[in-house]
Write a structure and sequence with these properties.
27% of the residues lie in helices and 18% in strands. The chain is α/β, with parallel strands linked by helices. Strands 4-5-6-7-8-9-10-13 form an eight-stranded parallel β-barrel, surrounded by four helices. It has a three-stranded antiparallel β-sheet with strand order 1-2-3, with no helix packed on it. Strand 5, helix 2 and strand 6 form a beta-alpha-beta unit. The radius of gyration is 19 Å and the shape is globular.
Length: 322
């Protein structure tokens, strides 16, 4: 394994509301990344070279993944490209050998904590929407998350611990999770993500970032002057507004990992067909039709052709300085 020694690893820290990389403010200009090939439901990094090239072109500096990358060659490529990665851990999925409940997550962290690609460790993704996974009581999740964060702190002093919370955490979540250093929030409020910043400022003095936000490229119905059907202009226009509003408040928000890099044909219906529909309920805050089409979220399509929103992301990320 070509991990660096601890003295060679970039130090990630927090001071008040800021995320710092080697004592300098770090603005996350990121992308959620879960590359699943057509016809499969399993993540694969077979396109990592092409994907990293496109990410660098777009000005992306951070990748967010939903489960650990247990392949040092992939992490090496991310580091060589000059990007950082937020490593996510699930709770109890038996297919994930590094899940939190098993305790094996700390084995992964101790194996990779000296890899220069690592930015933060992330515990859970929108688990507050699923109390049924925790005997009907989210306090069970917040305790498990807080205990896991404590173990991480004991083993790794160089990287903060974050979580991806579904929208704004309430007072119970905050009081039960003091060991979370940075709060990520998956925020879908049409094209008004900035409304969460004042709400966060009122309840916490910790750093936050938007772990998911954005728009899909399919209009399930006509709305706001955008026609029904595949509509890359609607996605591009929405993401332009969303990103501008995020980067207008760097004092509160440490950046964003936009959802997401590539379309996901595995999410709804057959995994070899570009299906309309998805898991999330209608009536959500997805621009502009309030209907999330889970297979149309990419800034590139499955063949890595750039959608209209790619240039929007590129312009906004490359013009935003830390």
């Amino acid at each position: 394994m070509s991990c660096q020694s601890e003295s060679q690893v970039d130090k990630v820290s927090i001071v008040e509301r800021q995320l710092l990389l080697n004592e300098e403010p770090y603005l996350i200009k990121g992308i959620c990344y879960h590359p699943v090939p057509i016809g499969s439901s399993a993540r694969s990094f077979e396109t990592i070279d092409k994907d990293l090239s496109l990410m660098v072109e777009a000005g992306i500096n951070t990748i967010r993944v939903y489960s650990p990358i247990d392949d040092v060659s992939v992490l090496d490529k991310i580091d060589t490209a000059g990007l950082k990665v937020i490593i996510g851990f699930g709770y109890s999925d038996p297919k994930d050998k590094f899940n939190i409940q098993s305790g094996n997550f700390i084995n992964y962290i101790n194996s990779y904590k000296n890899h220069n690609a690592i930015l933060m460790w992330e515990l859970g993704n929108e688990y507050n929407y699923h109390p049924e996974w925790f005997d009907g009581d989210l306090k069970n999740w917040y305790k498990a998350m807080n205990d896991a964060a404590a173990i991480i702190h004991e083993n790794d002093m160089n990287h903060p611990v974050t979580t991806a919370h579904g929208d704004l955490p309430n007072n119970e979540a905050l009081s039960l999770s003091p060991n979370i250093d940075v709060w990520g929030m998956n925020v879908y409020r049409m094209v008004e993500p900035q409304t969460i910043f004042s709400e966060w400022k009122a309840i916490s003095s910790k750093p936050m970032y938007l772990s998911e936000t954005g728009a899909d490229s399919y209009m399930a119905k006509s709305a706001n002057g955008y026609a029904q059907g595949e509509n890359q202009k609607a996605q591009a226009d929405a993401n332009k507004i969303i990103l501008e509003k995020i980067f207008n408040d760097k004092e509160i928000c440490s950046g964003v990992t936009l959802f997401q890099f590539t379309d996901g044909w595995w999410k709804a219906g057959k995994n070899d067909v570009h299906d309309v529909g998805g898991w999330a309920p209608e009536g959500s805050g997805v621009p502009y039709d309030r209907i999330p089409n889970e297979e149309y979220w990419g800034i590139v399509d499955m063949d890595r052709n750039k959608k209209k929103t790619f240039d929007v992301v590129k312009q906004r990320y490359k013009s935003s300085n830390n």
